[in-house]
Amino acid sequence: MNQWSINRKRFILFLIILILVVLIGAPIFFFFYKAPTCFDKKQNGDEVGVDCGGSCSLICTTQTLPLIMKGDPRVLRVATSTYEVISYIENPNVSAEILLAPYTFNIYGANSAVPLKTISGQTFVPKGSSFVVFEGPFNLLGDIPVRTTFSLDNNSLVWQKNLNNLPDLKIKDSTLSNTDSEPRLEAGLTSSSLVSVLNIELVALVFDDKGNTVGASKTFIDSLRVGESAPLVFVWPEPFVGKPATFEIIPRILPNKSYIK
Asked: Which fold is adopted by the domain 169-253?
């Protein structure tokens, strides 16, 4: 048998093997192969961690900056035996948000090692902006709270991407009056958005000359239509405990009405 005949048989055998591999091996491969996803509990594809980073909607915690507490959390007296607590927070991550961030307030008396009251909840953390976690009003009969602590359950924080442009909300013509009797803060809210803005939470904070929060109040606007200006009114039944020096109104657009804290 000459060399040409041997090479010809080898080539035919190679083609037969190749065809068998394609006809048998390929279906087996595609039957068992599972493409990487962002929900398979594995670090694969272009992920930075397990099901986070890369093209996934979730962002790995190692890729985010920590939330910044703007001052100490405060327990505020509203009226006799009626109080509220707030924590003012900044999220420096310009394209990352948390839909449900678990938190806890512990409220203490002057000589209390055990909290007079504990309040837990979940809140929405908007991207690249400041927001206020607000609880109250609530009653504490017979006890006078003097301080509160605030903590986030960092192990439960789930960061996700938000690359959408947020409406530019503006506070205008704000005035604080009647601070010696029944304080009243009035302002207007406008939006430069080309569509209606829904579910707007607004928290007013009043500060003394040292930057301590002496008053807080919250309101909601269900919808702000294009070109519309909404009036804002915040009132308190008694003068602030501490002389007010400055104030700020902090808006937050909630994903839906279930995120009310």
From this structure: Immunoglobulin-like (2.60.40)
